[in-house]
Design a protein that fits this description.
The chain is 44% helix and 14% strand. It has 334 residues and is of the alpha/beta class. InterPro entries: Bact_Lucif_Oxidored (IPR050766), CmoO-like (IPR019949), Luciferase-like_dom (IPR011251), Luciferase-like_sf (IPR036661).
Length: 334
């Protein structure tokens, strides 16, 4: 399995999670610190996810954070996992990412999703009369590709900067619909198995079976995002992982909170229904010491055949979080 892992690129998904007792002003420098370390440890990409109206997630202005981290690093690719395209005009996204790609050439990725990244009331506040814009997602992806195309130079509406730039577009998803779209357009596909594992295996199969080669990609390229909490021992990793379990319990119950410190045991911290819901969302999560992480990651890669793994780690203590990403990098390289 170690041979399997050594050929797999590994990347970071950051939600700019706000921990208990801190503010986004504390979170952002920690993100940059993690990105610099991730670059040193051989991580391939560092992506931010667009979310709104969540007290514990500070990545709402996604493109600004991408610029902040790209400006503070040298080689790691930085991008969106993703930009929720129906929340924005394709032209504005083209201009923003055209600007980023002009500032940091060859380092910017644009992952696109169709969900609002928030609740329905907030989605209405963002989208207004375009509330049903998700239905236009395939066409909006085409509009965006057109704005990036050099062939758009004679059009009356152009993306400056953006036009003629080679900015890799990814389709993100948590369902089979996104898999079909990515396949039809011949684009790389990233699946959100870190919170929506239900259709993961089905979506992978649909993507591969229906993939149409394009100018962007000759063969399917599949990335999966998973939760990882690594520590020097299995016991310590399980303790640190209680933070993400409590975090997701808040999502499940609708009682969101800032990322809480770890507790010694989840016994008594959730009821049987909450436990079942949280564990379902964390089906593919990997919690453990170095050997456990290596073995479980190897088994996941072997079982799914994914081309790249993206990791998100909701860990309360920043130093423990850095150590988790360092352990994973060592497992992937060994």
């Amino acid at each position: 399995m170690s041979n399997t892992l050594s050929h797999i690129p590994y990347s970071v998904l950051d939600l700019a999670t706000v921990v208990h007792g801190q503010t986004p002003a504390d979170t952002f420098p920690n993100s940059l610190d993690l990105a610099r370390n991730a670059e040193h440890w051989g991580y391939n990409r560092y992506w931010f996810a667009e979310h709104h109206n969540m007290m514990n997630v500070a990545s709402s202005a996604t493109s600004i954070l991408i610029g902040y981290v790209a400006g503070g690093t040298k080689t790691i690719r930085v991008g969106s996992g993703g930009i929720m395209l129906p929340n924005h005009s394709p032209l504005v996204v083209a201009e923003q990412f055209g600007t980023l790609a002009s500032l940091y050439p060859g380092r910017i990725d644009l992952g696109l999703g169709r969900a609002p990244g928030t609740d329905q009331l907030t989605a209405l506040a963002i989208r207004g009369e375009n509330f049903n814009a998700a239905f236009n997602f395939p066409k909006d992806v085409e509009r965006l590709q057109n704005f990036f195309s050099a062939d758009n130079a004679d059009a009356k509406v152009r993306a400056i900067p953006g036009e003629g730039l080679d900015i890799p577009i990814w389709i993100l998803g948590s369902s089979t619909d996104s898999a079909r779209l990515a396949a039809a357009k011949g684009l790389p596909y990233a699946f959100a198995s870190h919170f929506a594992p239900t259709y993961f295996l089905e979506a992978i199969d649909i993507y591969r079976e229906n993939f149409v080669p394009s100018v962007h990609l000759e063969k399917p390229y599949m990335m999966a995002c998973i939760n990882v909490v690594a520590a020097d021992t299995n016991q310590e990793a399980e303790r640190l992982a209680t933070s993400v379990q409590l975090f997701i319990k808040g999502v499940v119950t609708g009682k969101r909170q800032l990322l809480p410190p770890p507790i010694d045991s989840m016994d008594g911290a959730w009821n049987i229904y909450e436990q079942e819901a949280v564990e379902q969302m964390l089906s593919y999560a990997i919690f453990g010491g170095p050997q456990t992480v290596k073995d479980k990651m190897g088994a996941l890669v072997e079982h799914t055949g994914i081309d790249e793994v993206m990791v998100t780690s909701h860990i309360f203590d920043h130093k423990a979080k850095l150590r988790s990403y360092e352990i994973l990098a060592q497992a992937m390289r060994s």
